[in-house]
Amino acid sequence: MNPGTLGGIIILVLVIITILSSLRICSEWERKVVLRLGRFGGVRGPGIFFLLPYVERTPFTIDTRVVTTPFQAEQTLTKDGASVTVDAIMYWRIVDAGRAAIQVANYTQAVMGAAAGGLRDIIGRNDLSTVLSQRRELDEQLTVILDEQTEPWGIKVQSVQLRDIKVPDNLQDALSRMAQAERERQARLILGQSEVQVAEQFAQAGELYQNHPTALHLRGMNMLYETMRSGVASVIVVPASALESMNLGAVGGISALNSAAQQQQADGKSATPPPPSVI
All domains of the chain, ordered by start, with CATH? Predict the structure, then answer.
């Protein structure tokens, strides 16, 4: 083999090695940050791309998938002085790989620090009842706060959810008594409103019966019928005035006799008993 052929083979091998060493492959969810002679040269990927040999390098590979990160705030005081421990979970992802690699040294640690600080801050600005009853509103507020704080780093906070809120045992007993008292208050209010509505309906019914006596007679007869048709032996006490108003004096013998006696006294007559029979 002559020297020229050998030199050509060596050059070809060096070219192939150089090409292979400058070849990079990124997965669909990955991005590579390129530094050109130490300066930011852009973001490459996904797929296959080449680097300038000995000039460009890729020291950072950024995962752009959504990251699920749990975090908590232990023994944090609320606005009214209650000590609570809150567990939360955050969903975030990198939207700008260049800023995530260059603007912050460790973006994961930075996001976790911002999340813990933001959670403590939002708990301290609200009282215990708000923290326990308005989780959705607090989730939205914390999401906005963290998204604004991480936006310069090229990170998007999609959502934050408060999973569990732990309070001391003595405070749980107090909250339980407060909840029971609130339920009793609501029950009494509902009962009072029901009584008002029933009274209003009775008042309307009284006006209707006063203007239509026949309707009152029919209602009374229907009540007596419903009571007697039940088949259960019972004693029904009906006022004489009710029998008279319903024209049932003939049926109620006591009322009929009472009416006759009153009529005789009014006419100045006395009832003479018949002579006894002689056997």
Answer: 20-63 (no CATH), 67-172 (3.30.479.30), 188-229+237-257 (no CATH)
